[in-house]
Design goal:
By secondary structure, the chain is of the alpha/beta class. The protein is built from 15 helices and 15 strands. The relative contact order is 0.15.
Length: about 375
């Protein structure tokens, strides 16, 4: 087992990558619609600038023209921009994607993006990057070099960098963050549309969102006759966050929406957070019907498969978990952390894969 301190450190990194919320800050999903998001999409649909976008406090930024040099704070924004076709304008990223974590069609281009910081980008390096747009996933967080220790608005302005956020992730810790569990991907879709508006790739953004809605809609239709009480309980076992103290994936995390849309019930949906340190006693008390073996891509199929094998072997051998219903029945879902807890287009694929595992008679081909 890994030491408790290591587990907490890894969990903190996971939380920074994937902090999630349902917020009224410019989003049309979950926490109530936002006029700023609607204005953004409308302007982009007309193929025109300026475009207005708001931060978590409602402070607007006006984008006068499509940016030509973009830096993003981590792999979530990086992947969205690559999918939007703005990869040739990316000049740097922080928290780069791990080897093998980007899908094959994006990996080569993603590998060419300069890494300005293995974690948060140092302030001086960001301000001196030459960027005209910074896409921030984190918002104002004091730990791990998040937004609270980054450049001030005045410093961004002086450097000629406009600062925009992925609201689906950056607003989780704000007072305006909704407390209800997240049950859909509307805010991720809004972020894709917002980035499409800002980068002048609105048509591509609509294609991506339409594809997500089609995949999710197919699952929803297939599961329409399954009542809530027949939907199995589900626990995400974040193996890389440590085995001594499990991390609970809570209601405000994007994974809660993925699980819900897939026709399952997150056993920790009622904890009011995105992630929260848990205990094996809590997991045993929940006795989930299914357990997701959640690991990071190791860079090769063989290494990743071994990580899944190790996670499964732990649950089968650990006295506290070997008697769980899911363990006894072999009800494991092997699905990567990147597509489950990091906001993006692939969340829709994760919905289908989970649904195909827990409802195999109703949903086929989860890959």
């Amino acid at each position: 087992m890994r030491p408790r301190t290591a587990a907490r450190a890894v969990a903190a990194v996971v939380a920074l990558f994937t902090t999630a919320t349902a917020t009224a800050c410019g989003s049309s999903g979950g926490g109530g619609g936002g006029a700023d998001a609607q204005v953004t999409v409308k302007a982009a649909s007309a193929g025109s600038f300026p475009v207005k976008v708001a931060d978590c406090a409602g402070q607007e930024t006006t984008i006068a023209k499509a940016p030509s040099k973009i830096v993003t704070s981590n792999a979530a924004g990086l992947e969205m921009l690559l999918r939007l076709g703005a990869g040739d304008r990316l000049i740097g990223t922080g928290f780069p994607p791990g080897r093998g974590s980007l899908p094959a069609d994006l990996a080569e281009q993603g590998a060419k993006v300069p890494v300005l910081g293995d974690r948060a980008i140092p302030k001086e390096k960001l301000l001196g990057s030459g960027a005209d747009l910074y896409v921030d996933t984190f918002g104002a967080m004091p730990m791990m070099g998040g937004g609270a220790t980054g450049p001030s608005p005045e410093e961004f302005t002086a450097a000629g960098i406009q600062h925009v956020y992925l609201l689906s992730t950056a607003c989780a810790g704000t007072p305006k963050a909704a407390k209800a569990p997240r049950t859909d991907l509307a805010q991720i879709e809004d972020d894709i549309r917002r980035l499409g508006a800002v980068t002048g790739t609105a048509a591509r953004a609509e294609e991506l969102v339409t594809g997500m809605e089609k995949r999710i809609g197919d699952v929803r239709t297939a599961l329409a006759g399954v009542p809530q009480e027949r939907r199995p309980s589900y626990f995400v076992f974040d193996f890389d966050a440590g085995t001594k103290q499990p991390v609970a994936v809570c209601g405000r995390q994007v994974a809660n929406a993925v699980i819900t849309l897939a026709g399952a019930r997150n056993v920790f949906a009622d904890c009011d957070a995105d992630f929260k340190p848990g205990s094996w006693e809590d997991v045993v008390a929940k006795n989930p019907d299914w357990i997701q073996l959640s690991v990071r891509n190791r860079g090769s199929e063989e290494a990743t498969r071994k990580a899944y094998d190790d996670a499964e072997a732990f649950l089968k051998g650990f006295p506290a978990t070997q008697g769980l219903k899911a363990v006894q029945e072999g009800h494991f879902v092997r699905l990567g952390s990147e597509v489950t807890t990091i906001a993006g287009v692939r969340n829709a694929d994760a919905v289908r894969q989970i649904a195909a595992s827990v409802h195999p008679d109703l949903v086929k081909n989860g890959q």
